[in-house]
Structure formats: structure tokens, C-alpha cells
Design brief:
The structure is a single chain. With 175 residues, the chain is an all-alpha fold. Helix content is 79%, strand content 0%. The chain is globular.
């Protein structure tokens, strides 16, 4: 039973990350023209396209992608609670699964940002012209620009990604 729960969590986490990445890439105006964008779109179209008929984008946000991530987390929460076999009253189960889903989506969004910050930092040292460098920069720029205003580069070394990762770790403590 534990192996099944692990596999379900891994697969749902992968697709939830892709749905959230699609939402975040569109919200931060990251180009979908490269390999990363094509990968994300091809693996998420099966759910996002039908959802767009019901939930159109508004305000520059792809609400269908966010809804797909939340729905997947809701489904995962319900299945994991069902697999655990915990006796739950119907009035307790729904809020518990909803809280699990919202928390899961929020934590996944923070993990995506931390991963993008680490990727951007490593690529800036190794290969700043990598095809992943531009999307990582565009994804993290809204987070790093305010930190850079407070903490400019010191002797040419930019500490803003480190500060941003530390702040995101603090956010994770509250989620």
C-alpha cells in the first residue's frame, strides 16, 4: 500500500509541477518557444485545453492550468486518505482534502521557484547561454528584482538568489 501511495504521489507531483510551471510561465511572460515551453505544453494540453472551455484565462493568467494543478492535488488527497483507511466523517473529509490540495499547490509553487533560482545560479556560472537560462531568468526576475534593490551585487557577486532561496524556505515553514 505504501508503494502505491508513493507512486501516486510521484506521478501527481510531476504533473502538478508541470501545470504550475505552465501557469507561472504564462503569468511571468516566459516564452513557450523553446524546449522547456514545448515540453510543458505537450505534457499538459490533455487537461488544460478542455478546462479552458470552462475556465477561460483572465487578467493575463492561465486559470485552467492552476485549476488543473488544484484538481490533481484534490484527487491525490482524496485517494491517499482513502488508501490510508482512516475513518473520517463526511463533514471532516472535504475540508481536510481541500486544505491538503491548496497546501500542496502552494508548496509546489515555492519548490518550482527554488528550483528555478538554483538552476539560474548554476547556469550563470557554467553556461549562461543555455536554452534553459532565459526561461529561468524570466521566471525568477520578479522575485529577484526587489531583493536586488535592497542588496545590490557586492564586488560583482550577486547574493540575491541566496537571499531569495532563504526567504522561500521561510515561506515553506509556514505552509
Amino acid at each position: 500500500m505504501q508503494a502505491v501511495a508513493f507512486l501516486l504521489d510521484a506521478v501527481a507531483g510531476f504533473f502538478c509541477a508541470l501545470f504550475l510551471l505552465r501557469f507561472m510561465m504564462q503569468a511571468m511572460r516566459v516564452s513557450f518557444a523553446g524546449q522547456l515551453g514545448d515540453f510543458v505544453v505537450r505534457l499538459t494540453n490533455w487537461a488544460v485545453k478542455p478546462l479552458r472551455r470552462v475556465v477561460p484565462g483572465a487578467g493575463g493568467y492561465d486559470w485552467a492550468s492552476l485549476l488543473a494543478a488544484l484538481a490533481l492535488q484534490l484527487l491525490l488527497g482524496a485517494v491517499l486518505i482513502g488508501l490510508a483507511g482512516a475513518p473520517l466523517a463526511a463533514d471532516n473529509a472535504v475540508p481536510m482534502v481541500l486544505m491538503f490540495a491548496v497546501r500542496g499547490v502552494a508548496r509546489m509553487a515555492v519548490y518550482i521557484l527554488i528550483g528555478a533560482l538554483i538552476l539560474q545560479a548554476v547556469l550563470s556560472w557554467i553556461n549562461p547561454y543555455s536554452p534553459l537560462a532565459a526561461p529561468a531568468h524570466q521566471l525568477t526576475r520578479p522575485l529577484l528584482d526587489p531583493v536586488r534593490r535592497v542588496l545590490p551585487p557586492i564586488s560583482g557577486i550577486d547574493l540575491s538568489p541566496l537571499v531569495a532561496i532563504l526567504l522561500l524556505q521561510v515561506v515553506l515553514m509556514f505552509l
